[in-house]
Amino acid sequence: MTPSRSIGVTLPEGAAPIIRASLAADSLPVARWLLNKLVVRGSRVGRIVEVEAYRGENDPASHAYRGETPRNATMFGPPGLLYVYFTYGMYWCANVVCGDEGNARAVLLRALAPVAGLAEMQAARPTARRERDLCNGPAKLCQALGVRGTLDGADLVTGDSGIALADDGVLPPRRPGIGPRVGISAGVDLAWRFWVPGDPNVSTTPRVR
DNA sequence: CTTTGGATCGTCT
DNA sequence: GACGATCCAAAGG
């Protein structure tokens, strides 16, 4: 066995770091590729089961549509960064920046399947009654993992800020669920939301059959 | 199960 | 001054 190179978080048994080149592609293929990858945050681990692609300045639903601002600056950075934004006056949401630097492509993490650190997740989300309520929404998973604005710009490849992506060999679904993105008012005709079919942690809002 | 409305504040018009 | 890449509790079926 070749030991994996060490990164800034302790990876679960059998999981390896990801390489940055995996994220240096458009947000549509990267979104599908991210399904079933792991998010590692201290002892808390979740498997990505639902995502949405955003396509920078070409995408009317993207925060980057009207160009770079202090808020969205991380989206314009290199692939592998975490873009964290504050919304509705009280919630944080997290994206994986992908594509080439300056393109502002990103993939919104919409739901995780809890894998480890469930007690910590529950403590961070007292209102969750069932296990599938811990991470079945973009702001819920940030609460469960303790992701806040201080992690905006964190490098998910090196894990230097205490959060990283990892791959334990579970492949993305051959045929993901595909449907329109949630909670947007422009670009609603585009089917840029992807999920792991049948996973109980997929967010329940607008489901396409 | 579904629908509805309130909470709450940074960002950009 | 309006509007969110949301969540939750409450009320109705």
Task: Explain what you see.
It is a single chain. With 209 residues, this protein is an alpha+beta fold. It has a single domain (20-195), classed as Methylpurine-DNA glycosylase (MPG) (3-methyladenine DNA Glycosylase, Chain A). 11% of the residues lie in helices and 26% in strands. Strands 1, 2, 3, 4, 5, 6, 7, 8 and 9 form a nine-stranded antiparallel sheet that branches. It starts with 15 loop residues before the first strand and ends in a 14-residue tail after the last strand. The mean pLDDT is 95. The chain binds a DNA duplex (13 and 13 nucleotides) through residues 52, 54, 61-63, 66, 69-71, 85-91, 93, 95, 108, 110, 127, 137-140, 181-185, 205.
Q: Any idea what the CATH superfamily is called?
A: Methylpurine-DNA glycosylase (MPG)
- Number of spatially distinct domains: 1
CATH class reads Alpha Beta
* Series of H and E elements: EHEEEEEHHEEE
What average pLDDT do the residues reach?
Answer: 95
Known CATH architecture: Roll
* Total of DSSP H or I helical runs spanning 4+ residues: 3
- Write down the overall geometry: globular
Structural class by secondary-structure content? alpha+beta
List the helices and strands and how they pair.
Elements lengths: L15 E2 L9 H8 L3 E4 L2 E12 L26 E6 L3 E8 L6 E12 L1 H7 L13 H8 L17 E5 L9 E3 L13 E3 L14
Antiparallel strand pairs: 1-7, 2-3, 2-7, 3-6, 3-9, 4-5, 5-6, 8-9
The protein binds a DNA duplex (13 and 13 nucleotides) through strand 4, strand 5 and helix 3.
